[in-house]
Amino acid sequence: MAEKKRLSELSVLNLLFCFMVLWSHCSGQPITVLDHSSWQYGLMICLQRLTFVSVSGFFFLSGVKLTLSSGPLRLGRYYGKRIKSIFLPYLLAVAVYYMYFMRHGYFGFSLPDLIGYAIRGDLSAPFYFVVALAQFVLLVPLFRWLARRWSPVLLIPISLGITLLSAQYLNDMLHLLSPALNFAYGDRLFTTFLVYYLAGCCAGRNYEAFTQLLRDNFTLLAVLAAFLAAADVFCSWQLFVNGQPVPFLETLHTLYQLTAIPTLYALALRFPIRLPPLAQKMDRASFLVYLYHSLLITWFNDFIPHLGIRKVSLQFLLRVAFIYPVTFLLCILWQWGYGRVKEVLGSRAGAVR
Questions:
Q1: Number of H helices and number of E strands within the chain?
Q2: 94 CB contacts (<8 Å, ≥6 apart)?
Q3: Confidence band of 338 (pLDDT split at 50, 70, 90)
Q4: Among 95, 137, 192, 242, which residue has the least CB neighbours within 10 Å?
């Protein structure tokens, strides 16, 4: 019974973070074209920044799932599953995006470019997550050992320091070695998300204590998360709308995420939701949704002007109304069709034997 409850909490949060990702990327086009001094622009970019907690939340959930089971991990089987469920679908998605962009004249075919896009994860906005996740997957034995061997009291502060340095000061540190050194892909390094993943590993390893900690401190967590969310919105508005420098904004944003994730987790514990069958299918299709929603957004943005709809607000509402149901529907249908094909092939193989 306890395991079912845990899986339900993870599923609810996984769906919530998936919805946030879709909102964030649906907001991209209006943020690009709106007047940066307008309240509409300020509202959209502040809401988008609040939803950025979703990616950090995904890494936290990945860490929780990794260490929920205290039994031995068969690495061969683990890596085989990850290749099948994450990396092959990712490579297929890269190929699909590449063909779409070729057909629409963005660029011509180049095998080295295609390989480079797959390795860097820069063909589409969501892909950087997979590149960073791949590094965590490769280092799974290390993170399981860390969570088993050392206390979260030591691991989390140290990993927070590494995360802040990697996310905000990576190139500054490289410039100490040589002014010519510059790395443009810091958001794809696992160290940029280390505190979220490792905190998830610690939570999964000590799950009962973790959930009790959230229950006992829910009020404090909620107050802190609300305060830091408001502070992040205010400071983001000052920077992006009013043009006032806020040098500590990204540190503040990290603190907001560090309180928002456990607060959302505590809410999932406090108000448990039994997912209906459709929501369970949506949860299972969430990774495909993550991979392909940006392609549908690109198609929508290319198509909508041909209908004569040029008002930014109306485009945004139609984009949201289209992307959410259509992306989930297509990905659920893909999983259903893939499952049916496997069943048919399996039954035929059994008949041959």
A1: 17, 0
A2: 114, 117, 118, 123, 127
A3: confident
A4: 242
Give the whole-angstrom CA distance, residue 159 versus residue 183. Answer: 21
Please give the single-letter amino acid code of residue 32.
T
Instruction: Name the token pair of 142.
Output: 């290390």
Orientation of helix 53-68 relative to helix 249-270, angle to 10°: 50
Q: How far is the C-alpha of 338 from the C-alpha of 224, rounded, in Å?
A: 44
Residue type, 233: V
Tokens 């990576």 locate to: 170
Helix (H, G, I), strand (E, B) or coil at 275: coil
With residues binned 3-state (H G I as helix, E B as strand, rest as coil), the percentages for the chain, rounded to 5, are: 85, 0, 15
- Average pLDDT score over the chain: 93
What residue type is 347 in one-letter code?
Answer: S
- Tokens encoding 221: 């967590």
The residue type found at 288 is L
Give 85-90's long-range contacts (Cβ < 8 A, gap of 24+): 85/287, 86/130, 86/133, 86/134, 86/137, 86/287, 87/130, 87/134, 89/287, 89/288, 89/291, 90/118, 90/127, 90/130, 90/291
Can you tell me the distance from the alpha carbon of 337 to that of 12, in angstroms, rounded to the nearest whole number? 25
Closest to 188 (Cα-Cα) out of 145, 131, 141, 245: 131
pTM of the model: 0.93
CA distance 67 to 71: 9
pLDDT in tens, 93-144: 999 999 999 999 999 999 999 999 999 999 999 999 999 999 999 999 999 9
Half-sphere exposure of 337 (CA within 13 A, CB side): 6
Rounded to 5 degrees, what angle do the CA atoms 265, 267, 268 make?
Answer: 65
Q: What is the rounded distance in angstroms from the CA atom of residue 98 to the CA atom of residue 118?
A: 10
